[in-house]
Design a protein that fits this description.
The complex is a heterodimer of chains A (223) and B (427). With 223 residues, chain A is an alpha+beta fold. Chain A has one domain: Porin (Beta Barrel), CATH 2.40.160. Helices cover 24% and strands 50% of the residues of chain A. Chain A is elongated and about 60 Å long. Chain B has one domain: YVTN repeat-like/Quinoprotein amine dehydrogenase (Methylamine Dehydrogenase, Chain H, 7 Propeller), CATH 2.130.10.10. Classes of the chains: A alpha+beta (223), B mainly beta (427).
Chain lengths: 223, 427
């Protein structure tokens, strides 16, 4: 009960910080458009683009960001990097295969299917995103550092037996904004909610770690 | 601007989701001793008479008015009619979940039932019934568990633990950055697991006789029950209605209680503590006789206290001894002599005869008229009798061991005869 209260309080405090962070990021992204010379009166690149080029075809998105959680977590905001190669099936719908590297405990390589729906058929468009897949273990050396502080295992057996990381599933709904500066290059800002379950195994035990993180990313896209 | 609004709506939505769980959640899956609970409501309806049953896992022993009461560990109490010690009759059984210790005053039997102290009317052995109960006065204890596996998390709200199931459990690990309840809890359970509360006795008007391993004692109108650290004091002025008076801090690692006149001797893991109980509700500390760590019941006769120390995994040091202590000056006990033993449990004394249950070495009987030469006055030894506790009384020795209740006639100390045996069955 008490723990929950503290938890909630920390979460609230954190969400407030995150709200500010998000707002700042949003302003930055929007500011980017203005810097590139757009005004509400002038014809938008979207209306220009719509007639000038099609989104259909191959694309690459390369993003990096943070998986932000409670500061009480052993790793409150590990780094996340991902590159996605995919295909615009229609002007507004794309699907691609993403691989990356992340460090929620040890080092993992997420392999995901990434789908995005762009709300507008224009060079500036918000989008909805859903990606999911499996995180493969690259190196689990960092895992025991995280587990040590969290597992009751160390209390029973003094932590002399190690957990081995086994990887795990992830699912990441989110949304973002894409702004193309031309036919071939654009920037992307996105916010997502990361659900991830990593598995660990020792001789006598299994451990599941559920992550609920806010995934904030910036990236670039090539076509 | 519509896009802005939509975006902000989404941001808020995401944040609401995010705040619902921003802590990483650790769930462990492992094979553990998983508790089987009995609810408190069931516990408080559980005391009842049942047909006589075989001894399975006998514990403490209590004798009163030709009846022997044998605790069936954590289950209840056997009542044996011992009018003819050569032919004891297993009469009936009282189901008392979580029972380890008993004491009797008049017709009322006091028994611990997990966290409760229960008063049971045994005046009519055909109609044994609970007459009173002091709720939640004793510590939350758990039955022994398989030490090859860890304990699953316990939830005291759900009731008392009556058994364990070895099975795969899945439990969320509380993060250790917080005040760690589960850990404190865990330690507590483990400590208490080794020492469930139990009861001894004192000879006197209307009160029965317990063995040396007892943790209950009655003197006058007061019932004492001791756990690892705390002496619980009850008034039994009206025997049918025990009234909790107070708790008294009795130190650490207390294991047994022996009462003689106005003195209470508590055997603990690191010594014998003596209290003056002439004011029953306010025990007064008199002295502490320190010794090496071990498990140690105490019996006292006149100005001599006999203490056995048992070593081993649960008891600390690996020292096994019989210690004779002079308490001529109760303020200043003096060790007279120690004798090596194998692994002594309970002991009992009658006149100049001392009975020691020495583990695998069997039952040893000594003449103690000269306390300095006890070992050279061993009267008999029964290496095949693995006893836990004894009550020697009026020429009959009652001994409880792993395999049953034995009774011996020791009136002729040179010719000790086995009178009867009630065997442990169905173990």
């Amino acid at each position: 009960m008490y723990n929950h209260q503290i938890n909630d309080r920390i979460c609230k405090r954190k969400s407030f910080t995150m709200k500010r962070l998000l707002f700042f990021a949003l302003i930055c992204t929007l500011g980017f458009f203005n810097l590139s010379g757009q005004t509400p009166d002038s014809p938008t690149p979207a209306s220009q683009a719509a007639g000038e080029f099609t989104f259909k075809g191959y694309y690459n998105i390369t993003e990096m960001g943070l998986l932000i959680g409670s500061p009480e977590n052993t790793r409150p905001a590990p780094f996340s990097f991902m590159t996605i190669n995919g295909y615009h099936l229609t002007e507004q719908l794309s699907a691609g295969l993403g691989i990356g590297v992340e460090f929620p405990s040890g080092s993992y390589m997420p392999v995901v299917l990434d789908t995005r729906y762009y709300i507008r058929n224009s060079s500036f468009s918000p989008f909805l995103q859903l990606y999911g897949g499996y995180a493969l273990v690259l190196d689990d050396a960092g895992s025991n550092e995280v587990i040590y502080y969290n597992s009751s295992y160390v209390d029973y057996y003094g932590g002399d037996q190690k957990y081995k990381a086994k990887g795990g599933w992830l699912l990441n709904p989110g949304f973002g904004i894409r702004n193309m500066f031309g036919e071939n290059f654009g920037v992307i800002f996105s916010v997502g909610y990361r659900l991830q379950r990593l598995y660990f195994k020792s001789d006598a035990r299994k451990l599941m770690v559920d992550y609920n993180r806010l995934n904030i990313k910036v990236g670039i896209t090539f076509r | 601007m519509n896009i802005m609004k939509t975006s902000i709506t989404y941001i808020i939505l995401i944040l609401v989701l995010a705040t619902s769980g921003c802590r990483d959640k650790f769930t462990e899956i492992f094979v553990a001793n998983s508790p089987v609970y009995m609810t408190y409501a069931d516990l408080r309806q559980a005391v009842k008479q049942a047909p006589a049953r075989e001894l399975k896992n006998p514990g403490k022993l209590y004798f009163k008015d030709d009846y022997i009461f044998i605790v069936e560990e954590m289950k209840g109490i056997h009542i044996i009619d011992n009018t003819d010690p050569a032919n004891p009759v297993n009469l009936t059984f009282i189901e008392v979940p979580g029972n380890a210790d008993i004491a009797i005053k008049g017709n009322i039997l006091y028994a611990d039932s997990y966290i409760d102290m229960v008063a049971i009317d045994v005046s009519d052995l055909n109609s044994i019934h609970e007459v009173a109960r002091v709720d939640s006065i004793l510590p939350y204890t758990i039955p022994p568990y398989d030490e090859n596996y860890p304990l699953a998390k316990l939830d005291e709200e759900q009731g008392v633990v009556i058994d364990w199931e070895i099975k795969t459990v899945r439990q969320v690990v509380e993060n250790r950055y917080y005040p760690v309840y589960w850990r404190g809890g865990f330690d507590k359970y483990v400590n208490e697991a080794g020492g469930s509360i139990s009861g001894g006795g004192v000879s006197g008007e209307g009160v029965g006789v317990g063995g040396s391993m007892a943790r209950f004692g009655i003197t006058g109108n007061t019932l004492y029950a001791v756990d690892n650290t705390t002496l619980h004091i009850f008034s039994v002025q009206t025997p049918q209605n025990p009234v909790f008076k107070k708790d008294f801090n009795a130190g650490w690692g207390v294991e047994t209680m022996f009462i003689l006149d106005d003195h209470m001797f508590l055997g603990s893991q690191n010594g014998m503590r003596v209290y003056d109980i002439s004011i029953p509700n306010s025990p007064m500390y008199i002295c502490n006789f320190w010794h090496l760590t071990g498990c140690d019941p105490v019996v006292v006769k006149d100005q001599l206290a006999f203490i056995t120390l048992r070593g081993g995994n649960l008891c600390g040091n690996n020292v096994n001894q019989l210690v004779v202590v002079s308490i001529k000056d109760i303020q200043d006990p003096v060790e007279l002599k120690t004798y090596p033993m194998e692994s002594p449990y309970g002991l009992g004394i009658d006149g100049d005869i001392l009975f020691v249950c020495d583990g695998e070495a069997g039952l040893k009987i000594y003449d103690i008229s000269d306390p300095m030469t006890i070992s050279s006055h061993q009267l008999a030894r029964f290496s095949d009798i693995i006893g836990y506790d004894v009550i020697p009384l009026d020429g009959i020795l009652m001994l409880i061991g792993d395999d049953g209740l034995y009774q011996y006639d020791y009136q002729d100390i040179r010719d000790i005869k086995l009178l009867s045996k009630i065997e442990v069955k169905g173990k």
